Amino acid sequence: REHAWFSSFCKPRAPLSAEEQSARAASLRHRANMSFYGKAVWVMMAQQLSGEALQKEREVFLSVAATGTGKAAELAEALAMNLEEAEAIVRKFDLDRSGYLQFNEWMAASMSLADVEAVAQP
Asked: What pTM value is reported for the model?
């Protein structure tokens, strides 16, 4: 019998809407060309998310990354990108050189600035 935590983590997710796909792909393309330090700042901001904003990012990540990792092939399929572009983005944003985007790297690469600003509001 599977533990409840695993079944909630591994349940199938709904695909992203076309609007969400487009917004996430645009963020990935833009932020992939930032400097290492710029990307590191985004990772630090992403680590500040909590509550609903963090849950939203988790759901989006799991709908894109079926295996729980941001592999290039998964990103390409979920965000309607070609594989070469997705591989280049993963290489550019894979700060720890694991070969894929971990959750915090994914958040930093694709989250909405509005989510960060909402957390920063007192």
From this structure: 0.73
